[in-house]
Every structure is written in C-alpha cells, then in structure tokens.
Amino acid sequence: MSADRAGRAGRAGRTYRADRTGRTARSARVGRTGGPGSVTASGRTAQQYDPLGAMGSRPLAVVLGAAGVLWAILTSLFDRDVVGSPTLSAMTVLLLAASAAVVLVASSPFRAPFPRWAFVLHVGLLAVAAVTSVAAQWGPDRSALNDFMSLLTATGIVMAAPYRPWVDLVVGGVFLAVVDAVAWGTAATVFPHGVPVSVSGFLAAAPTLVLTAAAGVFAWTFAGLAERVQIRAGSYSVERAERDGIAASVEEDRSTILTRDVGPFFAELRTRETITDVDRARARSIADGIRRSMVADADRTWFEQAVRADGGALAVIDDPDGLIATLDTDQRTVVRTVVRAVLRAPTVDPADFRAMVRRASDTDALGAVPPDCVVVAFDVGVADSDVGIHRTFDPYFAVLRVTFPDLDVAVRPSSLALRFSYDQH
User: Fold this and answer.
1) For the ranges 27-31, 253-257, 313-317, 342-346, which has the lowest average pLDDT?
2) Which long-range contacts (CB under 8 A, 24 or more apart) does 191-196 make?
3) Residue pair 125/95 in contact by the 8 Å Cβ criterion
4) How big is the chain by its Cα radius of gyration, in Å?
5) Is 323:374 a contact under the CB 8 Å cutoff?
6) Tens digit of pLDDT for each residue in 318-370?
7) How many CB atoms lie within 10 A of CB 63?
8) How far is CA 182 from CA 93, 127, 185, 271, in A?
C-alpha cells in the first residue's frame, strides 16, 4: 500500500509541475516569438482572437475586391474624359486584381494567420496601381468621379482590417494616402484646373485617411476588448473548469463502484449470520478495484479526463510524459473544443480516436520543428467522405490554424489526421 502511495505522490507531483508550467506558459510567450505557435501580445489581430468571426467576415473582402476590380474595368472603358494610355489602364486593373487575390488567398482560414508579407505586398500593389491610374489618364482631367483609385486604396485597407494589427493598418493606410496625394498633386501641378494643388492632394488622400482611421480603431478596440475579456475569464479559466470536471468525473466513477459492487455486497452480508473466506476474498477484490480506480484518477492528465468526459473511454492516448499539460490556457481551450467536436460528431466512433504527444526530438519531425517543442498528432476514423469531413470540421480547423500555425490537416475518406506543434517553454 505504501508503494501505491509513493507512486501516486510521484505522479501527482509530475502532474502538478506540468500544470504549473502550463499556467505560466502564456506569460512566458508574451513579447517573444520563440515557438511555432507563439504570438506577441502587441501583434494579435481580430482573426487571432476570433477566428470564426474573421472567417465569417471574409465574404466582405471578396465583395470589396471583386467590386473594386469591376468598377475599375467599367470606368476605364466607359468613363474617361482623357484618352490616356489603354496599356496603363489595363495594368491598373491587373494590379488591382492581384492585390485582391493576395488578400483572398492570405485570408483563407487554412492559411491563417494573415502574414505581414502578404499585407506589404497588398499595399505595394495598390500603391503602384494608384500611380499607373493617374498615368493612364495623364492630361487635363476635369472629373473626380472617374478617379477610382483614391477610393480603392481606402477599401483595400478595410479588406485587411480583421487580419492585421492596428499599427500595420495605420502605417499601410498612411503610406497609400501619401502616394495618392503625391500622384494627384503632381497631375494637378502639371494640369492646373482652378483648385490649389494642396487641396487636390488632400482630396485624393482623404478617403484613405478616413477609412484607415476607422480600420485602425476597429482593430485596436477589438484587440483591447478581447484581451480584457481573457483577463477577466482567467479567474474561472479552463484550468478551474477542468479541475471541477475532473472532480465530478472521479465522483461519478466512485459512485458507480459503490452502486455496482459495494452496495450489493453489503446488502448480501446483512442476510448472512457468518462471514466466510469467500466473502473476505470478495471484499479484498472490491477494495483492490477501488484502489486501482483512485490510482488511475490520479494518473490522468486533463486531456485524458476531457476525452473520457466526451465519450472517449475507449480512445487511445499516447502521452507517457504528460506533455499535453504544458499547453497554455488558450491552447487548451482550442484543443478541448476540437476534441469535443470530434468525439461528439455522429460520424465518429470514439474508439477510433488516437492521440500521440511527443517531444519533437523523439519524432521524425526533428528539423522541421525545434527540438524543444512538443508535437501533437490526432488520428480519427470518420464514417464520412472527405467532402463531408471538411463540411463538418472546417470551422474547427480554422481555429486550430490560428492557434497552431504549423497545423497539418490530412483528410481522406473515412479518416482524419491532424498534426501540430507548440513551444512548451
């Protein structure tokens, strides 16, 4: 019995140390980018705080991009008061289409988070398009209604608002406003038309400045509110909810043992006048079962408890070192949500769920992943086609992708494999 206590103490110590590491992991990540899934607090975006909301707003980017290209085509063909250069007009439309394509591809939930290089490329293409648009109608332009680029540079910043932090949006928007002001101001200088050059430059830059301010305020306000919500939720976070859930699970297991074994045994003893050796052996067997259950409860990680709670008692969890406990609170929330969705899906048999957690140095991922990271792999049998699997789980893949940028998803008929890594320090 003392050996059992020592084993439980060792395991409990290991679990406590792992949980403590998990709780402090988030604070260690703030302000640095050491791991594959780390994100600095100052650089978080609406997409990273609310992946599903960003995915829902993606059609707005599609509409803005398509409408901008269509407007540019129609204006270039039918509403020019200066003949200009058809070649430069075509180049302007192509640049606009390229910038829209960059946003649409980079904003895909399966490529999240939206990278900075994509935003820089988007802004650069819009800036060149603004210049070629002015050059395409070089001459005494008397109508401001056909100067579409001063508005499309503004909507270009709005398209990226859910995907980049406010600093990037403001810098990109101010840069585009300056390009607009210089391009249209230069045209007004060469071809004056009764309006001061400074006014022409300001009017060209104004739409971009206004919508940049709106996009920046949105991104800054959203990030601030989301961060405060997370801080307030920390007083009753996933860890406390898991602890309460584990206690409830343990209580349920022991109640089952008492109802199934202990209660009938005592009821049977009350009807007998003497206790036999068979009764003593049966009592020892029941006591051993209770002890094994208590040891198993002490040895489970939060992840094992979560899988059991969602119907995965037959699932296979291969995590001999308890590394899953080093996930921080945000990561635990996402992983638990995905596991719950998978195990509760009508097309999934929990017995076909397998999870493997290893250090990168102990897997074939070494080289692609830093050796001090942890690699997590889920393999699930799904009684559905690959199209049906995507239809059911795509929103959860989007959330995983934002939290673990190196997520690899392999979908085949009747099977789903997920693999990702994170920095445990």
Assistant:
1) 27-31
2) 191/139, 191/140, 191/141, 193/140, 193/141, 193/142
3) yes
4) 30
5) yes
6) 888 878 878 877 788 788 888 888 888 888 888 888 888 888 777 765 556 77
7) 12
8) 20, 11, 5, 100
Look up tokens 């008492």; give the residue: 258
Q: Write the burial class of residue 198 (CB in 10 Å: 0-12 exposed, 13-18 middle, 19+ buried).
A: exposed
Question: What residue type is assigned to position 254 of the chain?
Answer: R
Strands 348-359 and 373-382: antiparallel
368-392 residue pLDDT tens: 677 778 888 888 888 888 888 888 8
- Residue 251: how many CA atoms within 13 Å on its side-chain side? 6
pLDDT in tens, 90-110: 899 999 999 999 999 888 877
List phi, psi (to 5°) of 394.
Answer: -55, -45
The CB density around residue 264, as the number of other CB atoms within 10 Å, is 11
